[in-house]
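User: Fold both of these, please.

Assistant: Here is the first one.
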Amino acid sequence: MPEKIIPKKTPMREQPPKERIKNFNEVPYGYSPEEAIAEAKRCLQCKRAPCVSGCPVEIDIPGFIKFIAEGDFKSAIKRIKEKNVLPAVCGRVCPQETQCEQVCTLAKKFEPVAIGRLERFAADYEAAQGEAPIPELPPPTGKKVAVIGSGPGGLTVAGDLIRMGHAVTIFEALHKPGGVLVYGIPEFRLPKAIVYREVDYLVRCGVKLVLNFIVGKTATIDQLLKEFDAVYIGTGAGLPWFMNIPGENLNGVYSANEYLTRSNLMKAYLFPEYDTPIVRGKRVAVIGGGNVAMDCARTALRLGADEVHIVYRRSKQEMPARAEEIHHAEEEGVIFDWLTLPVRYIGDEKGWVKAMECIKMQLGEPDASGRRKPVPIEGSNYTVPVDTVICAIGQGPNPLIPQTTPDLKAGKWGNIEVDKATMKTSKPKCWAGGDVVRGGATVILAMGDARIAARSIDEYLRTGVW
């Protein structure tokens, strides 16, 4: 146990807000070796380690932190990679405050150990030393697995199965791997080079990657099963939801999915190097209160908006976004319109959005989600000028695979139904996990599903018992 516990986390240096809203560079700079060691020494090295049970992929958190505290950074990243093939990603975008850090023993009296920052440090340290070493792999089993989707779940199941000796091929519909990590998360929060670095590691481990291959169009699940012994479906939730209010078909009204894809994957953020079509609004409204809404608002600022509003129907206390993301958005000047709901969008004579009518809300009794239900205040309607609206109220699974796989059972929202103990679907030899099962969730939960599925797939491939 440390002789004297430092109550607060070691701070992480960041780009100043006034500077960073003019560029897409990553906001936090990461820890130096000295800062990482200082933070690692705050860990109590608990024998029961509640942080491990709080991690969906079961990383030996005290183990890797102990190595960092001792300055043995190579052993630290090796320990992390025993359980997590995406440490640089998870260290940046995992909601640690509601998972491993929430149950950290130190959090009972002080700030928890900055587990995510230390994970990021270990991964970045390894990358700075050159190409990451490949682990020793077992002899091939002769079994072949198709993984559909190269997002965090697909990459995790591929990494686990290749280390179990199975041949793995990932099929990706887009022209770049990474799924939501690439098209959905902005460069200032997760640089694409980091995602590609982690994908490259898997490819060097032996995972095959097939791009521009749409399962359900290029080939169906049944056609894949003629070649592969098992299939894992990790296609995420790329179908945007709208509010179904008047004016959503006006020019200048985007889904968050389209807006972020144009900026991230189609590289609008690299203007003028890439002249990607995207509306660079001056007065932007983002509807929603999650991390995606924060990403959209902060992207709009960087694309040149004078004023960006987050419009959310509940209060700040009910917002689902990470506290860190809300804090960053506030620092950068995003304006929060809490307890506000748009009821229609108003267009000009050329079909472009020019204004938004809203109604004020108040909070009533808790609803099924446990959050207080927003209730409209009659007669509180008002109109504000806007030239861009981004709807970030959630998304569902793309229906293509359930539509082309008749014996694959899906729920009324299009989510594939699974046995949560194994992630088996209703269709033999098919597993699924992540957002295609859960709806919009988090990177680490998708990875946790993938870990469960990989064990189940391995057991099936070795025993033949479904």
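And the second sequence with its predicted structure:
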Amino acid sequence: MTVDVRADLGALSLDNPIVTASGCFASGAEIDRFYDVATLGAVVVKSITLEPREGLPPPRMAETPSGMLNAIGLQNPGIDGWLAKDLPWLQGKGVPVIVSIAGTSVDEFAEVARRLRGRAGVVGVEVNLSCPNVDHRGLVFACHPEPSADVITAVTRAVDVPVFGKLTADVTDIVSVARAVIDAGATGLSLINTLLGMAIDVESRRPTLANVLGGLSGPAIRPVAVRNVFQVHQAMPDIPIIGMGGVRTVRDVVEFLLAGASAVAVGTANFADPFAAHDLLAGLRTWMADHGVAKLSELRGAVQMPDREA
């Protein structure tokens, strides 16, 4: 049985729904020695800022029984360095590129976005609204609808490709933030970023991360991510969603699609197995054929809700 795995994300159409999660795939070249990264739906690159960043001091990553904690601190070469070195390599591969951008102010987001305008191979911009917000003393944009909307408005005015707002689940009502981001002009949403966590070494009595707090990723956060995708899709069923959070198996991919995602990003699994995204794409095709699913669109939001007595 031939299956159609094309993913429709509004104005952006991908050959398949498997993409990479920002920060978990390096620049793409590091993984390309294992398989052709152009087989993926898109490569979502690590968040790029206006100026280069060295990142936070080590230790910056730690395993926990519930997932991985990280506090990298947006280490990156800056937009000009990335455009000069990394984008030409991705353009040469012919893989669609979704550029994750970050900033400490609305103006910084807008300037990074402006430098991406008209760049060949860049098919979308993912706005990382969960980075530290200096203007708001350590809070993040995505914790509040209004500043999130301000960033999206500025970015959508600066670029000529679809824009996706990346939100955090560390809020009381993600639907209100999601609606503000869409109303501000975003094409779609990326759900979810890592969850804020902390681990302590009981022998040294010190936090395991130098930054004390970090982002928790991996299978432990998947139910939270699926819940957020489901809630936002129920509220805004026409809005494209890139679902992510602990994806490791084909069943995980299908779960996100059933909840309402249009595409699925693979993150932490890449660290344990560089073939993870590649194998999930092949496995998804097999799963669909085995279950008589001809088109990916048949799965999106197709969760069957339990019957409720009146």
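The chain has a mean pLDDT of 94.
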